[in-house]
Amino acid sequence: MGNYYYPQGGLPPQTHLTTERAIVTEAYTVIPKGVLTDIVTSNLPGFTNTRSWIIARPISGFATTFSQLIVEIAPGGGAPKAEFESGVEGVVFVTKGKLNLTLDGELHHLEEGGYAYLAAGSEWGVENVSDDIVSYHWIRKAYERLEGYEAKSFVTNEKDIEPTSMPDTNDVWKTTRFTDSSDLAHDMQVNIVTFQPGGVIPFPETHVMEHGLYVLEGKAMYLLNNDWVEVEAGDFMWLRAFCPQACYAGGPGEFRYLLYKDMNRQVKLT
């Protein structure tokens, strides 16, 4: 816990082989850590001394529910107002450094492993007041309101959440859930999944939920549609609905990833 990979940018030398592990298919995309260089970053409106890697965004015919960014803020940088769309909820997860988060007028200090759920309509901003960079994931989704329910903002840290062992796995497969899956106020979850060496997803999961999976630590073989793909810390996998998936964590250490999924809503047909 707390050993999170974050991109550091840079640019490969001219002698570097062009071949990489990037894969784009109709069912899934793999963005390996090696392509997260300086020249593929994006600036963000309202932010200073900040760059971002946008690793997922809605694309017609593929994954459509969310966007995901890796944001890096240099000392003194940030944004007094980060989210400009009032109907968008978000999650911030800190992988490097210390981040000041002002949420609806209250100041929170997020360190590595820090997690914030930012409800749609919340006023929030971020600032790096340290002497080093801060890196965090920012996941955004249009909130689907449900009569009688309303998601509320909160701030916590991974170290304060007890992971739940998946049934009949002898603790080799655990999930850290920051919200209750049965809470219909939430139409998405961003969890942390941890496999011990030898842990597996023992069948190809095939379901309606889209996924974004960012590998925080370790390496594993991951089944994506019909392909077994080797992934490691810093890689990102993006799965459309009904893409079969499974996992084998061969070790030597833990395999951990940050997982996005949409949930708890009926399919809209009109």
From TrEMBL:
Q: Where is the signal peptide?
A: none
| Superkingdom in the source lineage | Bacteria
Q: Where is the Cupin type-2 domain?
A: 70-139, 192-258
- InterPro entries tied to this protein: Cupin_2 (IPR013096), RmlC-like_jellyroll (IPR014710), RmlC_Cupin_sf (IPR011051), UGHY (IPR017627), UGlyAH_cupin_C (IPR044697), UGlyAH_cupin_N (IPR044704)
- What's a Gene Ontology MF term here? ureidoglycine aminohydrolase activity
Recorded hits in Pfam families, A to Z, give: Cupin_2 (PF07883)
What keywords appear on the UniProt entry?
Hydrolase
The cross-references to Gene3D superfamilies, in alphabetical order and at most eight, read: Jelly Rolls
Q: Which NCBIfam families match?
A: AAH_UGLYAH2, PRK11171.1-2, PRK11171.1-5, ura-cupin
Q: Which PANTHER family match?
A: (S)-UREIDOGLYCINE AMINOHYDROLASE
- Return the protein name: (S)-ureidoglycine aminohydrolase
Identify the taxonomic lineage of the organism of origin.
Bacteria, Bacillati, Actinomycetota, Actinomycetes, Micrococcales
